[in-house]
């Protein structure tokens, strides 16, 4: 799992590359299970959340995570819902301008967090339909875990 800080163009390319042909209940369960397996292998103290619209389709909390991780999930997810881009990309765009999301977005930091870990679930022909979020590691690692899981998920043939 790479934790180097990706550039804005690399983050945009990830989102384009990881657009899915479809995303339903079985897909949410498969992606969530993959994230749980990856987190267990790494002994990562994370919480995982997958949503389609307002519906929570998958949630897991691994040893070492806490309710605080769920609060971070909500705040990072809201950034994806508002901007249609990963929470890491949104935060990176602000940093590239020499500021921070908290200083310049004019959004309540108790409601929104542009920290890595929330990624848009985009479906070809439909756009962003949901989010997949990991919380519990440093933001680059949260983001990287989600991207790696989506890369594995898209590489696996599904019925």
In CATH, the architecture is: 2-Layer Sandwich
Mean model confidence by pLDDT: 95
Q: Approximately what portion of the residues adopt beta-strand conformation?
A: 15-25%
Task: Note the run of SSEs as H and E.
Answer: HHEEHHHEEH
Please list the strands of the largest sheet in the order they lie side by side. Answer: 2-1-4-3
Q: Any idea what the shape is?
A: globular
**Given the helix and strand composition, which structural class is it?**
alpha+beta
Quantity of strands, as a count = 4
Give the CATH level 1 class.
Answer: Alpha Beta
Low-confidence runs: none
CA-atom Rg in angstroms: 14 Å
State the assembly state of the protein chains. Answer: single chain
CATH homology superfamily name: Haem-degrading domain
Give me the number of helical elements.
6
Helix percentage range: 40-55%
Query: What is CATH's topology name?
Result: Beta-Lactamase
Note the gap between the termini: 27 Å
Sheet with the most strands?
4 strands, antiparallel
How many distinct domains? 1
């Amino acid at each position: 799992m790479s934790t180097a800080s990706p550039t804005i163009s690399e983050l945009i390319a990830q989102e384009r590359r990881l657009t899915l042909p479809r995303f339903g209940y079985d897909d949410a369960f498969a992606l969530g299970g993959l994230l749980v397996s990856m987190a267990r292998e790494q002994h990562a103290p994370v919480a995982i959340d997958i949503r389609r619209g307002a519906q929570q389709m998958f949630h897991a909390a691994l040893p070492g995570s806490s309710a605080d991780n769920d609060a971070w999930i909500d705040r990072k997810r809201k950034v994806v819902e508002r901007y249609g881009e990963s929470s890491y990309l949104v935060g990176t765009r602000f940093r590239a301008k020499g500021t921070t999301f908290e200083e310049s977005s004019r959004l309540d930091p108790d409601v929104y967090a542009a920290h890595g870990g929330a990624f848009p679930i985009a479906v070809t022909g439909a756009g962003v339909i949901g989010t997949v979020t990991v919380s519990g590691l440093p933001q680059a690692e949260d983001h990287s875990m989600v991207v790696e899981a989506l890369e594995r998920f898209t590489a696996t043939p599904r019925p």
